[in-house]
Amino acid sequence: MTRAVLHVDMDAFYASVEQRDDPRLAGRPLVVGGASGRGVVAAASYEVRRFGVRSAMPMSTALRLCPQAIVVAPRMQRYREVSRQVFGVFHAITPLVQGLSLDEAYLDVSASQEPPGGAAAIARHIKTRIRELTGLSASVGVAPNKLVAKIASDLEKPDGLTVVEPARVLEVLGPLSVRRLPGLGRKTGARVEAAGIATLGELRCATDAVLWPLFGRYSALVRARAAGIDDRPVSPDLPDKSLSAEDTFARDQGDPRTLQQELSRLAGLAVQRLRGRGLAAGCVGVKIRRGDFTTFTRQRAIAPPSDEARTVSAVAAELLEQWLRDNRGVKLRLLGVVLTELAPAAQLALFGHDSARVASTVQQAQARFGERALRRGSTIE
User: Could you state, in chain order, the average pLDDT of each consecutive group of 10 residues for the chain (381 residues)?
Assistant: First the structure.
């Protein structure tokens, strides 16, 4: 059986959803993200990308590049709804679906191929079905493994379909920039180019003498990746390793009471996501970033694992309080709550019914009326 892997990547997903839901935004330069001075671009429409705007860019930079850009706040609940429709299309094709995010997934269709057309026909069907259900476009790469499929999906965006047959892997990858290699990173990519290696073909043929100063003991692996060699399986339903909620302040914040209020809000948000996945956390952590971008983490194990906001918030508050005691007067740029050691939520304890019902009711109210509809008193200024 010829292995066939698809990498499906929705085109400018958040921005495309906003443009579809509000026709006034169609064809306009659109940025999804926080509008404050510390905001970050979560998604950029193709109309605004012409100005050099990209996701993960500071919003201030994006607006400097394109002053006429329209900024809209993210609507994560809406994006999750559309994502469920998209993933429904995937699961109708194959059970081997590995989601990478709301808008991106690998599919192993090796056992699903039927003549005529095989994997390419499946990719076309997926693109058509997604457009019928959501009105959105997706770009798909078809290849013998995950690495090549991911590279291929990015070659003809937006609304692209690139098929790389096993016999053509080296032919397709060879002329591509080394920066096309997933995971290489901007800084490492620049170092590789500075060493005189511009393409994946050149990287594949580079000697150990050239690669070792760049990649050390990973030189052989990098050379193999440049040749399109990748035996990683498509692993469906990978368990969550962590869940988090964080926020960047509009101005550096040093007031302990305000910081604790924000931490309590973030703890509630993280727990809401935790319960939505039917999980409990065995470790609670806080992420602390000073104004100079120095970042600290503190964590503590909890037993038994919990999915209750009160427990998570209390542990996080103690961790932050201890850090603030040791760093008096420091102002923070960012604060976050990180939940790790995740496992399926256990059956309710004998006397745990009331608190579980309360948590469930709060979650339902927030899902229907918004996060701020029902809050703990400690989060209210």
Answer: 90 96 96 80 94 91 95 93 95 90 93 72 96 97 97 96 96 96 85 95 95 91 95 78 86 93 94 86 94 89 89 95 94 94 60 46 53 55 54
Cα gap 321→121, rounded to integer Å: 57
Three-point CA angle 317, 320, 325, nearest 5°: 120
Measured distance CA(336)–CA(39) in Å, rounded: 15
HSE of 78, CA atoms in CB hemisphere, 13 A: 14
Active site residue 104: yes
Burial class (CB in 10 A: 0-12, 13-18, 19+), 12: buried
Tell me if the bond preceding 304 is cis, omega within 30° of 0: yes
CA separation, residue 108 to residues 99, 167, 196 (Å): 12, 19, 36
Q: How far apart are CA 230 and CA 72, in angstroms?
A: 39
Q: How far apart are CA 251 and CA 231, in angstroms?
A: 47
Q: Using a cut of 0.85, tell me whether the model's pTM lies above it.
A: no
- Residue 16: how many other CB atoms lie within 10 Å: 26
Q: Is the dihedral of CA 115, 108, 8, 94 positive or negative?
A: positive
Going along the chain from its start, the domains and CATH numbers come out as 13-75 (3.40.1170.60), 174-226 (1.10.150.20), 242-379 (3.30.1490.100)
By the 8 A CB rule, do 254 and 303 touch? no
Choose the catalytic residue: 18, 104, 262, 308.
104
Task: At 327, list the tokens.
Answer: 């760093």
The four Cα atoms 168, 174, 179, 181 give a dihedral, to 10 degrees, of 40
